[in-house]
Fold this sequence. Notes:
- By secondary structure, this protein is an all-alpha fold.
- The protein has five helices and no strands.
- The protein has helices spanning 6-20, 30-40, 43-53, 60-71, 77-97.
- The longest helix has 21 residues, at 77-97.
Amino acid sequence: xxxxxxxxxxxxxxxxxxxxxxxxxxxxxxxxxxxxxxxxxxxxxxxxxxxxxxxxxxxxxxxxxxxxxxxxxxxxxxxxxxxxxxxxxxxxxxxxxxxxxxxxxxxxxxxxxxxxxxxxxxxxxxxxx
Length: 129
């Protein structure tokens, strides 16, 4: 787990997203977000999720993204970009600081030596021949 606090994580994510989406045209439009929401609810996608994970796909986040896009549609493009980047940065920061499967692994600081050099059990040699 990271020792970064929430506000620092949001600032880091926002800085990264500003590089990835440098102009207002780089953020997704409402039609793209609506298409993402609709495609999430397709029967095939739901069945695949049910088969792989044992539950239906959760599409509420995609609906929230579409509703948010519609609510900021009347803003100036740069202001809309700033609001979208801030919202996305908060989502990524929350996801980064939450528990994940990476919490069970320890970061290796030294590379493993493979093949191991040394005497092998039940043999008199110390190298692979």
